[in-house]
Fold:
Amino acid sequence: MLYKVAVVCITYKRPHGLKKLLLKLDDLTLVAADISIELTVVVVDNDSEMSSSTIVNECSSVYKNEIIYVVASEQGIPIARNLGVDSVPAQCDYFCFIDDDEYPDELWLVNLIKTINKFGCDCVAGPVVPIFPVGSNQWIVSSGMFNGWIYEDGKEIFEAASNNVIVKTEFVRNTKVRFEEKMRMTGGSDYLFFRQLVEKNIKIRWSANAIVFEDIPISRVSWRWVFNRQFRLGNTFAVSQRIIGHRFGLFFLFVKGMLRILLGISLMPFIFNPKLGGRAIVHFFRGLGMAIGVFGVKYEEYSNKALLKDRQN
Structure:
């Protein structure tokens, strides 16, 4: 059976990562058993200077698959994601999201489609495996703080992220769910997007074999970056809840945040154990981000200044 699939990649001043991703996408296995995939790659450059155009043009000259290049000149991940969804060709049955610092396993797309066939679901998510550079802090590496979700293969789940996911195009267009552009600097618009799709009764399954790898730069294997990221992840939940506007939800989130802070503190005596110490850091800083975020504090990890600093590293 033929499946027409678009892979959407949002990029901002990350030429080496984008080139690696585009080349890996072009090497994907697209035929297996009763599956045949027609692939289109949609690159959304979130830089008004079109800094990624050179890489896209270079890859297009040797590409087996179609590349669509569009520019979201207004800064903001959800703005770029919405343009990416809008740029998916009408004939595509499904579209995927993958980040520009990631690259897929050769059977990534085939395994996503296999899971769709097996369960008849609208959406499939898969694991992201971190790849650390030489010289990384081994305590941080061993802590598991960079590890993504892990579920049993085929399990029904009720969340997803834009770093490894495939979604039925018709479902998204019929429900008119969009990435929340109020979250353009905070991150987490994908968390809210899939939460809203779940409320629209989308069916999501997990594919343990649809693997994506993430290259972790040495600048991120640091205490400061880890603390800030865990705080931001917790803060994202509060920002989303304030946008939704459920007062009870905010109260529940505050209580949950405080409990996580206390749990983190209780685990601090085990800080020298990477696994337990990592859990202490995750609980404490995510809880802090939740609790403070309830009162309107927003951590803007993706501001122009923060992004430029991240790309320079």
